[in-house]
């Protein structure tokens, strides 16, 4: 009896489990059947013209500007300009008190005159010694004087000649010192090196300034030609190889709302902005900073730009045209990517290797989607160039991005509903 009862209980449990499985399967079928399709926006892959842009931020600066620092130290006793004033090349900008430099010039001038007098005296002595030497030489040959007297006359002549040579050199030294003193005196008066505008004025009348002879010196003012301006922007090390001279750029300056300006790349830095490795501390401190290279873009338009204005530059680097036969790859396709059509998947990993990201798109096949690996070329603000994986006319999911990243999978059912999908539309490709 106990054994028969145990078998009956096991049968009851088994049939109960089977019943639950059947019920669960039915519920799952009903759930799957009732799962609504995912609303997406789509766009067909098509040929088009594309321009790849490199975007960078920076400042507007004059092409030509000169920072005025004195070469001599002293007090500003005359300041003839104000900030924003226009000046011409050669206009007087300022004067530094010249008293000490005037005294030094006068002292050097006196030394120079003294050296000239000494030279003239030495020449006269040499002439006298020369006559005495010649006379004694004649007498010595006639054996009318002793050898000792002759040698004394010769030595006197040699000393006079050496004194003459030294006096001439002293004149050269005194003349050089006088030139230096006069140059220092002239540097107390500073003139404009170019025609332009005083864009910055850092010093005031009566202020003492330091010269650049032995140190950095005081930056008194900046004179700039504001008629020719350029954008100085920082480009990352990944994008800088794409930048070439004479490439076109579109500039957006914060101070000029709803206006765009054109420009041309004129200069590309050969070294990074943050490559100061003079000390170990600076090297370790800058190791975490992004490496940037300065690029200069000449602004074509003439506007009232001011130095230091913020600018965003869109530099045109590479182009793709859809004209037949112009492309090296005749299967170039561009597919909308602003709403996330290009997503990342992981390739199969080899032993001891990290998985590499693979770019994919979702292609519409009837009422479902298929994940298709692709290879991308250049991109602009709205499109990716697809070099492999698609053919012209393929319908590709282009929105919305959250659905693509979170819900959409290979084989998922979809419904084309642009209005519902574009409620979360993004404006930039990733």
State the major sheet: 6 strands, antiparallel, barrel
Strand order of the largest sheet: 2-11-14-13-12-15
Q: Got a strand count?
A: 23
Count of separate DSSP helical elements: 6
* Secondary structure: helix percent: 25-40%
- The outline comes out as elongated
What is the rounded Rg? 44 Å
Distance between the termini: 73 Å
Structural class category: alpha+beta
| Unreliable residue runs | 276-286, 323-349, 424-430
Quick check: average pLDDT? 81
Sequence of secondary-structure elements: HEEEEEEHHEEEEEEEHEEEEEEEEEHEH
Strand content bin: 25-35%
How is the quaternary structure best described?
single chain
Key traits:
430 residues; alpha+beta; 6-stranded antiparallel beta barrel; 4-stranded antiparallel beta sheet
Explain this structure.
This protein is about 30% helix and about 30% strand. By secondary structure, the protein is an alpha+beta fold. A six-stranded antiparallel barrel has the order 2-11-14-13-12-15. Strands 3-10-8-5 form a four-stranded antiparallel sheet, with no helix packed on it. Helix 2 packs antiparallel against helix 3 (about 145-185). The longest helix is centred in the first third of the chain and has 43 residues, at about 100-140. The radius of gyration is 44 Å and the shape is elongated. The two termini are about 75 Å apart. Mean pLDDT is about 80; it is low at about 275-285, about 325-350 and about 425-430.
In brief:
This protein is an alpha+beta fold and 430 residues long. The chain has helices at 2-34, 99-141, 147-186, 280-286, 401-406, 418-421; strands at 38-44, 50-62, 65-68, 74-79, 86-87, 92-96, 189-191, 196-201, 208-209, 221-224, 229-236, 248-253, 261-268, 292-299, 310-320, 333-336, 343-346, 357-365, 368-373, 375-379, 383-388, 395-399, 414-416.
